[in-house]
Structures are given as C-alpha cells and as structure tokens.
Amino acid sequence: MSRAPIQVYSFGPAWGIPVPTCSPFGLKLVTWLRMVDLPSTMHVENNPAKGPKNKCPWIVVDGQTIGDSELIMSRLRAEATVDLNAGLSAEQKAIALCVRRMLDEHYHQVWEHQLFIDDGGWEQGKIFFNQIPAPANILVRTLVRRDLRKQLYARGVGRHSNAEIIQMGIDDLDAVDALLGDRDFLFGDAPSEIDATVFAFLSLTYYVPCPSPLWTHMRSLTRLTAYCDRMLDRYFKDQSAA
Q1: Pseudo-torsion of CA 195, 198, 201, 202, nearest 10°?
Q2: Are 11 and 21 spatial neighbours (Cβ–Cβ below 8 Å)?
Q3: Which single residue of 10, 16, 80, 129 could bond 141 by disulfide (Cβ 3.0 to 4.6 Å)?
Q4: In terms of domains, do 172 and 199 share one?
C-alpha cells in the first residue's frame, strides 16, 4: 500500500523559475523526495515562522511536523525506495559532506547577500515579495532585508566588501565545477544524494535573474549550467514544461 503524499511547505517560486520553490533548502528537499520516489505535495508558504524551526522548509507526515531539510531527510530515509549513496566510497561520502557544508553554510550566505543585500541584486530580490499583497509587501521586504543584513554580519560574510563576497562565491562555484569535471553527476553517471544539494544552490543562481558578477560567472561555467539543465530535465520536466 502506497503512503499518502508528504506535505511540504516552502517559499514560493517567484521570478518564473522552472522549479517549485526559490528556497535552496526547500528545493534540496523537493529534489531529494523526487530522487528517492517519495510522493509529496508542495504548499507555498512564505511565512517561515509557521514552521517548527522558524525557517523553510518543513513537512507534515503521519501527523508529525518536522523542520530542517537535513532532519526531514534523516526521518524519511528508511521509507525511500532508493539508496542514493549505496555505491559511494567512504572518501566520496566525506567529500559529499564537505560540499554540502560549503553550500549550506557558506555559499548560501553569499547567495543571499548578492540577491537581497547588494543594491544591484536587490532590484531583483525584492520581486520575491510581490507574492505578498500590497502595501504590506513593502513593509515586509524592508524588515526582512534589515534582519537579513544583521544576520549576515553576525555570521561573518556580511562583514566583507561586495567584491570580496563575490570572489568567495566564485571560489565556491569553481570548486564544484572542478569536482564535477566532465561527469554527468557529482560522482559519476548516476546521481547521489549530494546532487540534490548541488542542484538546489546552482540552479537558484542559474535560473533566478540577478545582475551580480557571481551570477555571470555561474552562467559562464558551462559544465555547471549543463548539469542544472540535466537535473531539471530528470526531476522537474513537468515543472519546466508548464
């Protein structure tokens, strides 16, 4: 007997992107669910305070509400029909963990800064808040940007110059490009669990419009753009064709 779809709550897509959410962590989760063939229903929820961790995404499954993409995946792995990491060596699993930490903890800060704090990126970033009815959207985006600026300063990346932040992001992208090489997926011809994370962060740089030089650099890395299109075609063909 098949299980009921897992109810996923995350930010909306915005900007006409060909994936169901503009949250890197939400997209990581939704991609992973598709990779392991677990049915899910995506709900747009732009207020992370409604979730148990006060952030997106979260799920409701079997009457339980769970927050944080990694904790959600840990809870659901036993139900997955596929072990995405079955063929990986201990070294590859260690590399995957390092890549995930780099993207989750560092590149994510750079991405947020370029889209929501840098004045050039903000012209596109504030479009996200158009999902909220006017005039409340103006107040919300002002408060969110103020709070995000404080968070990024406290976490470290926001203390640097814009040029330094861009270079940090370029270094992250170049590292992923070097690891991917000419392979279809990070560790070979078949995707593994880390590809959900890599796709989430790369695609939301590739597909989201932003004038940042970091975005320009991402689009110049043809192996990474081809990788995003490959993952999109494999797991979100229904979305991209809509």
Answers
A1: -100
A2: yes
A3: 129
A4: yes
112 and 58 in a single domain? The answer is no
What's the token pair of residue 125?
Answer: 């970033």
Range of the domain at 72: 6-79
User: Under a CB-based contact definition with an 8 Å cutoff, are residues 233 and 240 in contact?
Assistant: yes
Residue for token pair 């992370």: 48
Q: Cβ atoms within 10 A of the Cβ of 81, count?
A: 7
- Compute CA 168 distance to the chain's CA centroid, rounded to the nearest angstrom: 18
pLDDT by position in tens, the chain (length 242) = 467 899 999 999 999 999 999 999 999 999 999 999 999 999 999 999 999 999 999 999 988 999 999 999 999 998 888 899 999 999 999 999 999 999 999 999 999 999 999 999 999 999 999 988 889 999 999 999 999 999 999 999 999 999 999 999 999 999 999 999 999 999 999 999 999 999 999 999 999 999 999 999 999 999 999 999 999 999 998 874 44
Residues 22, 128 contacting (CB under 8 angstroms):
yes
23 and 120, same domain (yes or no): no
Using alpha carbons, list the distances in angstroms from residue 230 to 4, 17, 81, 162, 223.
Answer: 29, 15, 22, 31, 10
Spatial separation of the C-alpha atoms in residues 52 and 37, rounded to whole Å: 25
- Residue 241's Cβ-side half-sphere holds a number of Cα atoms within 13 Å equal to 6
Rounded to the nearest angstrom, the gap between the alpha carbon of residue 179 and the centroid of all alpha carbons in its chain is 19
Q: Are residues 156 and 198 in the same domain?
A: yes
Structure tokens that stand for 76 in this block: 């659901």
